[in-house]
Amino acid sequence: MDDVIPSTDLLRDLDRRRLVHPLHHPKEQANAHLFVRGEGAMLHTADGREYIDGLSALWNVNIGHGRKELAQAAARQMETLAYASAYAGFSNEPAIRLAEAIVARAYPNSAAVYFTTAGAESNESAFKTARYYWKRMGKPGKVKIISRRYGYHGVTMAAMSATALPGYQKMFGPLVPNFVQAAPPYPYRWPGNGDCGIEAADAVESLIEAEGADTIAAVIAEPVMGAGGVIVPPATYFPRLREICDRHDVLLIADEVITGFGRTGRWFALGHWDVTPDIVSFAKGVTSGYLPLGGIILSERVHTALEEAPMDERYMHAATYSGHPTCCAVGLANIDVIEREGLVERSAAMGRKLLAGLETLRSLPVVGDVRGLGMLAAVELVTDQASRTPAPGLGAKVVAAATARGLILRQRAGADGPPASGDSLCLAPPLMTPEPVLERIVQILGESIAAVTA
After folding, report:
1. Which domain holds residue 257?
2. Ranges of H-type helices in 82-195
3. What is the spatial distance between Cα 41 and Cα 228, in angstroms, rounded to a whole number?
4. Residue 337 DSSP SS3
């Protein structure tokens, strides 16, 4: 290849002809944003425009763009040991050190880490590990996974079957059997006047009883539902769900792919409610997206089942890139930045400021709900605040208007239900985002909503 930089038009043409994108449709690539540089909370495109990255790219660039420490960590590791197998009988220092660092910052019952390359792979690993655990315990019939409507757990086959957003499933069925869904803890849309947290947890228990506890391996739950609309549960939900799982001898899987590594103002989010899971799936923020990495954290209970297995029941789960030395070295550098700069605590403080700013948008007639935890927030749109009637299609118009004004965010399109829901505008800025930029996010969002609904 020569050193001439292709024109933006040529690159877009090649993009349309040669590259298949996630959630692909060719119409959406006609004027694709071609990113060429990132710096802090800002992204720059080939046509010279600057955008606020209001979603940390894809909920994952926690420490911000352009951090040379992570690039240098990758280069140093590649120069010495870029890759080596971590299959049984082999190991490497970065994987060992990162596993220790993650366990030290996770839950009190955390014991060990298995590394993957992405969130969906982490959840696939969690499902397999839950089934493995029950087979080791002499209960091979416990194979079903309960998830919640509006939950997102990835779109590989089993993860997609746990994901309860129908748009991801329509063209890829039939789903993998033995996945069932319960009602989500969605305060704004919960029917009746009861305690949403208690009643939504009890809905999981009703499903366990209907299916038979002897068939249920685990419940998987995002501490804050991300792609489903940043749905923050009531404080009563997870303590009750933990009690239910214990009572019926069911594992609790915390999907912390989005919420892990400081996003909600804690290293891991179930700490907000003093709840400990049996398995944690993680990805995204572990390297702030600088290299692909994910994994699952096993509790002492689950880890013991692996450690005490006879050879003919060994943990026959594997991936070529599990424990990848370079990815793990970047993960260690990322954790160092998060700690050195106090980004977990900053996420909590700046998240409160972001949420307070978004609350001012309630004066706009189409803003039905504002919610968030740490640097994770959403604004739900309706046609009428009193009736909470969904406003189909409004979110996409607001996202387009915000993009034109220099803010990148994402929407969760409303659903027919149950419960019916409005479009939700989702935000997850980098944890280091300066306060003036957070204020500008609120300003642009308000202007965009007003412009679209004028």
Report:
1. 69-340
2. 93-105, 119-136, 157-162
3. 24
4. helix
What does the alpha-carbon distance between residue 277 and residue 299 come to, in Å, rounded to a whole number?
A: 7
Q: CA-to-CA distance for 220 and 335, rounded, in angstroms?
A: 26
Q: What is the pTM of this model?
A: 0.96
Q: What is the pLDDT of residues 265-301, one digit of tens each?
A: 999 999 999 999 999 999 999 999 999 999 999 999 9
Q: Could you tell me the CA-to-CA distances from 203 to 115, 183, 266, 420, 421 in Å, in that order?
A: 33, 6, 27, 18, 19
Q: What dihedral angle (degrees, nearest 10) is formed by the CA atoms of 15, 17, 19, 24?
A: 100
193: domain CATH number? Answer: 3.40.640.10
In a domain, 2, yes or no: no
Confidence of residue 417 (pLDDT cuts 50, 70, 90): low
- Assess contact for 296 and 279: CB atoms under 8 A: yes
**Using one digit for the tens of pLDDT, what is the confidence trace for 345-389?**
999 999 999 999 999 999 999 999 999 999 999 999 999 999 999
| Cβ atoms of residues 190 and 196 within 8 Å | yes
Which pair of structure tokens corresponds to residue 167? 């748009």
For the record, the structure tokens of 200 come out as 């939504």
Q: How does 269-301 read in b/e, with b if 16+ C-beta sit within 10 Å?
A: bbbbbebbbbbbbbbbbbbbbbbbbbbbbbbee
Same domain, yes or no: 282 and 206: yes
Look at strands 367-372 and 294-299 and give their pairing.
Answer: unpaired
List the CATH number of the domain containing 21: 3.90.1150.10
Does residue 163 carry a pLDDT above 60? yes
Same domain membership, residue 418 and residue 406: yes
Count of structural domains, the chain: 2
Structure tokens at 117: 């390359």
